[in-house]
Design brief:
This protein is an alpha+beta fold and about 180 residues long. Helices cover about 30% and strands about 45% of the residues. The strands form two sheets. The protein has a four-stranded antiparallel beta sheet, covered by helices on one side. The protein starts with a helix and ends with a helix.
Amino acid sequence: MPAAEANHAFDDEQNSYEFAFHVLPTVAEGEVEGVFTSLKELITKDGGEIFDEEAPERFELAYEIVKHLEGKNRKYASAYFGWIRFKSESHNIAHLTEEIEARPELLRYLIIKLTRVEEEHPFRFHEALAAEKTVTTVEESQVVPDLSTGAESAEDTSEVKTEDESAEGDVDESALDEALESKEV
């Protein structure tokens, strides 16, 4: 097959994409689902097929994002984050991008082409965020010698770990402070 025909053959092929987005925090919580639905309709309108999604949920951003709205630069420290994975022909992505850029309720977005490995193993952001915040407290009774009197006494020690923290990993200082403050000394 000539090279010109080979390049044209791949243009009509469906690829997998991920559309990740932040919805402005000024959008009412009840209206976020409507924004999410309208974004999915944009994708399917041009023949895209949605195969996975994570509905937007509000969370604190790692840094403030500045967006120019209504003639002013506005700073946002939180947003609703979600993503949609879909299959579409590559020539539809430019039109989809134009439609998305016209949406004033979006703070930021990104469309990427997925590899097979990425397609098979989606990262569930909100689940990972919830698992990271889970804290487990373990209490043990330990016999400690009192060096001043030579007697032994029972001392209650608490160890605070997050689920993703190893025994040699960093300590969550705020959780440790809370555990120490709740202790009777």
